[in-house]
Amino acid sequence: MIDLKQLCQSNNLDFDDKFYEDCEVFTKLLRQWGQVHNLTGSLAIDDINENILDSVYPLSFIENHESFADIGTGAGYPGLILAMARRDIKAYLIEPRVKRVSFLNFVKASLKLENLTVICNRVEKVEDLNVDLITSRAVTNTNLLLDITNNIKEENSSYLFYKGSLVQEEIEQAKVNNYTLVNRKDRNYLYIKGK
Ligand SMILES: C[S@@+](CC[C@H](N)C(=O)[O-])C[C@H]1O[C@@H](n2cnc3c(N)ncnc32)[C@H](O)[C@@H]1O
């Protein structure tokens, strides 16, 4: 089994001990809830650690943001993990499926994540929210993501989309400018800067 701290450090990421303790609680709860409810894919520890690393990896290259909203957080990747890693940033998780929202709220309460708000809705129906970073993994293509998040963006919002091999086609289709593309294994992180 690969230790999460070692995994993060070998990727030039370091967090305080509290983050790793929180990840242990998250992992335990995910494995408990995941056996009963259909929350996510693999519940193997190594896969959970890899998903945690995938979630926080962009913290090594993105700018500082005051708030972010994660679209379609599911069982927690990447938005819940980002909120655990950066308790100083206001975090919103937008997820319409009730069981997944119950799990996210249970983790929020267990870890006393005061920076976190979980919204049970589809993003296009969310009102009165504007954030300066919008994140999403495995929900829909870039063009559609930009479209359905129009109501929660600020004038200069940035975007961080966790993409796979189709990222270049998506960039062209969505006519994206001013972006950074960072690759790690099969993951392509598409960071579209608002300013
Ligand atoms: C394949 S799961 C991905 C979950 C998580 N982001 C991950 O990478 O493991 C897609 C999630 O997006 C949510 N979703 C789908 N359409 C959405 C929408 N319009 N607004 C917010 N969430 C949405 C689904 O309920 C589901 O939990």
Short structural summary:
It is built from seven helices and seven strands; from the N terminus they run αααβαβαββαβαββ. It has helices at residues 4-9, 17-36, 45-56, 79-85, 98-110, 142-148, 167-174; strands spanning 67-71, 90-94, 116-119, 131-137, 153-163, 179-184, 187-192.
Describe the structure.
The protein is an alpha/beta fold. It has one domain (4-192): Rossmann fold (3-Layer(aba) Sandwich), CATH 3.40.50. Helices cover 37% and strands 23% of the residues. It contains 7 helices and 7 strands. The protein has helices spanning 4-9, 17-36, 45-56, 79-85, 98-110, 142-148, 167-174, and strands at 67-71, 90-94, 116-119, 131-137, 153-163, 179-184, 187-192. The chain has a 7-stranded mixed beta sheet with strand order 3-2-1-4-5-7-6, covered by helices on one side. α6 (142-148) crosses α7. The longest helix is centred in the N-terminal third of the chain and has 20 residues, at 17-36. It is globular, with a radius of gyration of 16 Å. The termini are far apart. The model has no long low-confidence stretch (mean pLDDT 96).
